[in-house]
Specification:
Strand order of the largest sheet: 3-4-2-1-5-6-7-8
Strand content: 15-25%
Shape: globular
Helix content: 40-55%
CATH topology of the largest domain: Rossmann fold
Radius of gyration: 21 Å
Number of helices: 15
Largest sheet: 8 strands, mixed
CATH class of the largest domain: Alpha Beta
Distance between the termini: 18 Å
Number of domains: 2
């Protein structure tokens, strides 16, 4: 089978869409399939091309772990500024459609969102190639940008919402990364029999719990602190102002033995760093910057707890951040600042403590509780590792996804997979006509 996968992001970029696409495509290639990824030159989040790459109108081809990577030109833009970012997204859509003309006809096209126009590129490429489209939904867009305030023009938002529905209806099948996403989509379009749920997961062979690295902790200036790490995008949706305010609360209580490590980059990193400096919290809140993917296990393993947080809103109750599974695999207790399906997973695993999103007092209490109770940390960590290995192994999930693609490419019945709550049987999916 020849699979053509459209993704705006791909390694060496280290965000969640890039990682999920890579992890699945490599496994499909290892299973003997011909996998092509149509993507951009790596430049996220700064809009600056990574060393060794060139943003050329001539497409560039490379092979990564058995996967053919075709990189196309895009208008470059940092992960800030709505107009420039949308220009970046639109340029990828156009470049991907044009580049696909010269590519061999695949058996199935997969397009992943975010970003939104990558999904639309998949619609047009699948029509040009006259093959089925599987649309992967990792973000409910434009609803998410309405909530974060990135676009406020009502007319533009309504137009994008119409385009969202057309995009869904243009797919032969939709793969959502959570049951909440599936419910959101079915409220907008009548296609519940053509939506499957395949969550994110983790390679439990790469993410293995280990003792903290003293040298790494010293490099953060946190050799003798309890370290609560946040790893991921520092953007409008993530509400990380709560960390700065929680650090102020802890300082007033004399808890300078606790520190927050923020690993990653995004549109609000500069503003948060300024707030930390002005408040004199440099020794309690440390920005480590963007790190290569291969360093993440070591960073997690050298932390004492992990923070998962999004702003408080109804839409984000449907989100399952992929970083949850990596923290679970590393046996690190989670401070869970996201309600809904994500919280259910962590609480069912017995792997963390709840906090109220956007509440500095709640965060400060949770991190103090873990810092003061080594027995509780150990208990939560052991439960985390066992749970994720049983229910969210990347190999198992990639194989389920591949079964779905094979059924669709063969023109037969598609397997509708709705991932159940942990502990329920996933081996008997319903079958629905694609």
């Amino acid at each position: 089978m020849h699979i053509l996968f459209l993704s705006h992001y791909f390694p060496p970029e280290v965000n969640a869409p890039a990682s999920r696409t890579y992890e699945h495509c490599v496994r499909w290639a290892q299973a003997g399939h011909d996998v092509t990824v149509l993507t951009c030159q790596p430049n996220c989040p700064d809009g600056i091309i990574y060393p060794g790459y060139k943003n050329s109108f001539r497409r560039q081809v490379e092979f990564v772990d058995g996967v053919r990577i075709v990189r196309v030109w895009t208008y470059l833009a940092a992960n800030t500024g709505t107009v420039r970012r949308i220009s970046n997204y639109l340029s990828y859509m156009l470049s991907a459609i044009l580049a696909s003309i010269r590519l061999p006809r695949p058996d199935v096209v997969v397009a992943t969102s975010p970003q939104f126009f990558c999904g639309w590129a998949g619609v047009w490429v699948a029509r040009l190639k006259r093959v089925p489209l599987v649309l992967e939904i990792r973000d409910i867009w434009p609803e998410s940008i309405r909530i974060t305030g990135a676009i406020k023009n009502g007319l533009v938002l309504r137009l994008l919402e119409y385009m969202e529905q057309w995009m869904y209806q243009g797919a032969h099948h939709i793969v959502a990364v959570g049951n909440g996403y599936r419910a959101n989509i079915t409220e907008k379009v009548d296609m519940s029999d053509r939506i499957s749920v395949i969550t994110n997961g983790v390679d439990v062979r790469k993410f293995v719990s280990h003792e903290p690295d003293p040298q790494l902790r010293r490099s953060w200036g946190m050799a003798n602190k309890f370290v609560c790490a946040y790893i991921g995008t520092i953007g409008m949706a993530h509400g990380l102002q709560v960390v700065v305010k929680a650090a102020e609360i802890l300082r007033r209580k004399g808890r300078t033995d606790i520190g927050f490590l923020l690993v990653g980059d995004g549109s609000l990193r500069g503003r948060l760093a300024d707030e930390v400096k002005q408040a004199g919290l440099d020794e309690m809140v440390v920005f480590a910057g963007r790190k290569p993917r291969e360093q993440i296990p070591a960073i997690l393993g050298s932390s004492d707890a992990c923070l998962i947080h999004l702003k408080s809103c109804q839409l984000f109750t449907t989100v399952i951040p992929s970083k949850i599974f990596e923290a679970l695999a590393m046996g690190r207790p989670i401070i869970m600042g996201v309600k809904g399906e994500s919280r259910r997973i962590v609480m069912e695993a017995g792997a963390g403590l709840e906090m109220e999103p956007d509440s500095p007092d709640s965060l400060a209490l949770a991190v103090e509780t873990l810092a003061d109770n080594a027995t509780l940390r150990s208990q939560l960590g052991r439960a985390a590792r066992g749970f994720v290995a049983q229910h969210y192994d990347r190999n198992v999930l990639a194989n389920k996804y591949l079964d779905l693609l094979e059924c669709i490419a063969d023109g037969g019945e598609a397997i509708k997979l709705t991932q159940p709550a942990a502990g329920q049987d996933m081996r008997s999916p319903d079958r629905k006509a694609a």
